[in-house]
Amino acid sequence: MNPSENPGAGEPSRIVPTTGVHNFRDYGGYPLVGGGRLPRGRLYRSGEHAGATDRDLGIIAALGLAAVIDLRGSAERQRFPCRRPPGFSAPVICADGETSPADAPHAAAEAFDAAAARRNMLDRYAGVGFRPLLATVYRDFFHALARSNGPILVYCTAGKDRTGVLVALLHTALGVHPDDIMADYLLTNTVGDVEARVAALRADLLRRFGRAMPEEAVRVVSMVEPEFLQTAFDSLVARHGSVLGYLEQVLRVTPADRTALAARLTA
């Protein structure tokens, strides 16, 4: 199987055109190694919805979501509660506790140059699969997919790190080509209003830490790099022998589960 060429190009339906919710897109549509193709309109990812406009809420309502997976921790959800469309009734699955390291804000505050910011990001990616509560919500995501016939949305604060790793795990479990997995991950850098996302992060960091982070450091934290995702996967392989080993041993997604999930999604 050949990987998709330039995923996202010429595919306007991949992007959900929200303005107050960043990085909103459909991550289906990719061919699978064993044959078939992931469906469109079933798998969505985004940043948080605290800034959703009324127009955004109408767009989200039209998706007909069957479930929402909020990868943020309790403190993040309390600080930035998400807006929902009127009459929204889909279950929202999340953790009762924190899904980011306790020292993450302090590390970010000290990352006042691009090199320090990159080191901080690599450290966080190396441990992302081993945060207990985050792994629990990752596991819940796979269970929700196995039970649902409708669209499922997963998001975190920016929709790129915790979300990016989970989407890459699902793509790996289902047999998406590695080149497509990486290309989808990197779409964060070009989808939607990137400058608005960078500006929002810059303002948030200033509000939280009382000083401005240099532009080059903000852009490192706002974007994704191939090395980030590769670091996360290398850590899983080091502890569990393979990414599929991590899926089975930590997230309890067995080979039979993966086969059933692929059949359910591609039917």
Jot down its keywords:
267 residues; Protein-Tyrosine Phosphatase, Chain A; 6% strand
Q: Tell me the structural class.
A: mainly alpha
Give helix % range.
40-55%
Overall number of structural domains: 1
Shape: globular
Q: Class, according to the CATH hierarchy?
A: Alpha Beta
Characterize the biggest β-sheet. Answer: 5 strands, mixed
Low-confidence stretches: 5-10
The count of DSSP E runs of length 2 or more, i.e. the number of strands, is 5
What is the CA-based Rg, rounded? 18 Å
CATH superfamily: Protein tyrosine phosphatase superfamily
What strand order characterises the main sheet? 1-2-5-3-4
CATH arch. level architecture: Alpha-Beta Complex
Q: What is the N-to-C succession of helices and strands?
A: EEHEHEHHHEHHHHHHH
SSE layout and pairing:
Layout lengths: L24 E2 L16 E4 L7 H10 L3 E4 L3 H6 L12 E2 L10 H7 L3 H14 L4 H16 L4 E4 L6 H13 L3 H9 L7 H16 L5 H8 L3 H15 L2 H7 L5 H12 L1
Parallel strand pairs: 2-5, 3-4, 3-5
Antiparallel strand pairs: 1-2
Helix pairs in contact: 3-4, 4-9, 4-10, 6-7, 8-9, 10-11
Description:
There is one protein chain. The chain has a single domain (17-266), classed as Protein-Tyrosine Phosphatase, Chain A (Alpha-Beta Complex), CATH 3.90.190.10. It is globular and about 50 Å long. It is 50% helix and 6% strand. The chain is mostly helical. α4 runs parallel beside α9 (215-222), α6 (162-174) packs antiparallel against α7 (178-186) and α10 packs across α11 (243-249). The two termini are 19 Å apart. The chain has a 5-stranded mixed β-sheet, with helices on one face. β3, α2 (74-79) and β4 (92-93) form a beta-alpha-beta unit. The model is unreliable at 5-10 (pLDDT under 50). It has helices at residues 54-63, 74-79, 104-110, 114-127, 132-147, 162-174, 178-186, 194-209, 215-222, 226-240, 243-249, 255-266, and strands spanning 25-26, 43-46, 67-70, 92-93, 152-155. The chain is built from 12 helices and 5 strands.
